[in-house]
Write a structure and sequence with these properties.
Helix content is about 25%, strand content about 30%. It is an alpha+beta fold. The protein binds adenosine-5'-triphosphate (ATP) and magnesium ion.
Length: about 375
């Protein structure tokens, strides 16, 4: 078929994945289950994804020759983290390979300012925010948004990096340096009762299925635990799913879209941020659902039918950061624990080394 955007990739095809982390690893494992091959493209040696893939290219995200050669041997390309330079999928696209989700989705999600404008156009509720193009604009922005507020770098942030809280006495000169970005977004601090996320999978034909909402607890800006089901009213859950679906449709996502949200005491749901890829808050789906988020991503980007998202257990997923991985033996000995390790050699503090999902019968006592 000439129209690349409509290309279906049946089992046996090769999925190109930009990025070599644990999300790529779990995507490649799900792909293998369905008879697909994965080809990882990433600048680092011995990555979690490369360890389980059919082929690996170790090259810079800006290496045009390497990207062209990669494009020539894959049937579809996706990315497993949003800080991949957009030039990389564009080069692969130029070789006639569909990019799913689109380069536009990548472009929007890697720039917080662009993402805010996009979400505003979607008409979904958000925390109060204002773009801060340069340090000279910060004082006025803080005046408008008030304190406490959070300055977030527009680019390059993840796991709470590039974010600075502005309290009643915070000196604004120091804040910009600490944020570290070229420009930023100032947000009001949401007084939330809990954080939730919904992961939407959208097929090539526009079919939409959801996971969640799940309830997420963070420690030091990094996801610590995800609990399903989220302890929210059905009306709140329905609103969270509605918002996530609106964003996925507006962004014309083919693949997964994760939407992180704040739930306020009055039941209002506000979008925090989005990610067009598998998400840490969806790892429990591997063990608790008919179809995992990773398999769903593979199905969607290959244009084959999506699977059921039916859930069979209540679940709590805990991230294993740094030396928390040392407890592996205890988890292996726990009957309702499902342990996942990412094959990273060095357990640096705060580094995601693995996760463990505890399964309990549905509807049990929390
Ligand atoms: P990740 O990539 O891990 O999702 P990130 O670095 O992109 O994180 P955010 O999701 O923006 O960062 O923020 C991380 C966490 O910090 C949020 O999940 C939330 O707990 C807290 N946080 C961020 N923005 C706000 C806000 N406006 N009000 C209250 N809490 C916030
Ligand atoms: Mg986040």
């Amino acid at each position: 078929m000439n129209d690349v955007t409509k290309r279906v990739v049946p089992p046996g095809g090769t999925i190109g994945i930009l990025g070599g982390g644990q999300l790529g690893r779990m995507t490649a494992m799900a792909a293998a289950r369905l008879g697909y091959r994965s080809h990882i493209y990433c600048p680092d040696e011995d990555t979690p994804a490369a360890q389980v893939a059919d082929k690996v290219t170790v090259a810079s995200y800006f290496d045009r020759d390497a990207l062209a050669a990669f494009g020539d041997v894959i049937d579809v390309v996706t990315y497993e983290f949003e800080n991949v330079p957009t030039l990389s999928p564009q080069y692969v696209w130029a070789r006639g390979v569909p990019v799913r989700p689109s380069t536009k989705a990548l472009d929007i999600s890697q720039n917080r300012m662009a993402e805010k404008y996009f979400l505003k156009d979607c008409g979904v509720p958000m925390v109060k925010w204002i773009g801060v193009p340069a340090p000279v604009n910060l004082a006025e922005a803080v005046e408008k948004i008030g304190r406490p507020s959070i300055l977030k770098s527009a680019r390059g942030g993840y796991d709470g990096k590039g974010q600075v809280r502005i309290g009643p006495d915070t000196d604004l000169d120091a804040v910009w340096q600490e944020m570290g970005g070229e420009n930023g977004v100032l947000e009001a601090v949401a007084d939330f009762v809990c954080e939730v996320s919904v992961i939407v999978a959208r097929g090539l034909d526009g079919t939409v299925v959801h996971y969640g909402p799940m309830e997420n607890r963070h420690a030091h800006g990094i996801l610590d635990t995800t609990t399903v089901p989220a302890r929210v009213d059905e009306a709140v859950a329905a609103e969270a799913r509605r918002i996530a679906e609106v964003v996925a449709v507006e962004l014309d996502v083919v693949g997964l879209l994760a939407v992180e949200m704040f739930v306020l005491a009055d039941g209002k749901v506000l979008v925090n941020e989005i990610a067009p890829r598998p998400h840490n808050s969806g790892h429990w789906t591997i063990d608790a659902c008919m179809t995992s988020q990773f398999e769903q991503h593979v199905r969607a980007i290959c244009g084959v039918p999506l699977g059921s998202t039916e859930r069979f257990f209540d679940a709590e997923m805990r991230n294993l950061l740094g030396d928390a991985i040392d407890d592996w033996e205890r988890y292996l000995a726990t009957p309702n624990a499902r342990l996942h390790l990412y094959g990273k050699r060095e357990a640096r503090p705060g580094r995601k080394m693995g996760h463990v999902t505890f399964l309990t019968p549905m509807g049990g006592e929390p």
